[in-house]
Amino acid sequence: MDSTGERGWWWPVALQDEGVHGPQALRLLGHSLVLWRTPEGEPVLLDDRCPHRGARLSLGRVVNERLQCPYHGWQFDAQGACALVPAVPGFTPPASSAVARHGVKVEHGLLWCNLAGEASHPPPDLSHLPGRQLIYGPFDVETSAPRAVENFLDTSHFAFVHEGWLGDAAHPEVPDHDVSHTPDGRPVIEHYRAWQPRASASAAEGGWVDYRYEVLNPYAALLTKRGEAGGPQDSYVIWACPVTPESCRLWFAQYTTDTDTPAETLRDFQVAIFAQDQPVLESQQPKTLPVSGGEAMSAADRLSAAYRRYLKAQRIAFGTC
Description:
seven-stranded antiparallel β-sheet, Naphthalene 1,2-dioxygenase Alpha Subunit, Chain A, domain 1
């Protein structure tokens, strides 16, 4: 199997408990999917198209442990095989009447899918992060997944988009820093020191913060930061589901040693931060990320440049130009 390109990876498509109230329409890499669950609660992902007359199966319902098409009532089991044609009760449907089934797994509080049959790139291992996990989203964003991830990796916008929160317009300078790479080629910044007016939901005042950035896969990245005063360690992950070349669905996961701040307070802070990002992200043109030139760069953009080179090396075409 050719594992290069975006089809050779597992991608998040939904929160781990979605689909419990009935079939749900999803999109991944421009592909229409339906998520439903067996009576035992196991998630199933099929193509969202009935092979009979092309109706959306996500408009149907689960009947007798099967997904029933809303148009003519054809029923499909958890493997995608057609088990019943109500109009011809004694008919045994052939294999050609099946719906394509896709791999699904639960990791990091999300449901993951691959479209390649046997993807060779599993979800990243995050077992080293703090134990308290919160997930924020989904956020449906009218820009490509690579644009969203690059914004997460970008620090020089803090002083303007997040002024008074993560940055100060009077001090927009980006400190000197080095970009290295993991053995498999993912860009990393081990140390990036910045002063922030309010680095986290629990911060009472401004302070110096030590950042570490790591690209986890073509559509995900990890940021870990810790204040000088020995406060909580916070790690943030952006998970981007590439919906179409120019749109994506995002979740932000926070892993923190802060066991005191209420979840609602932590969530409100992160939602407020992304509310500042989203209109700027959606204004960028083109919505796909130029990986072969066409946009100006400066020394402050070295992580962005490394990320774009990484996407090219991984043959990621969906969401790039």
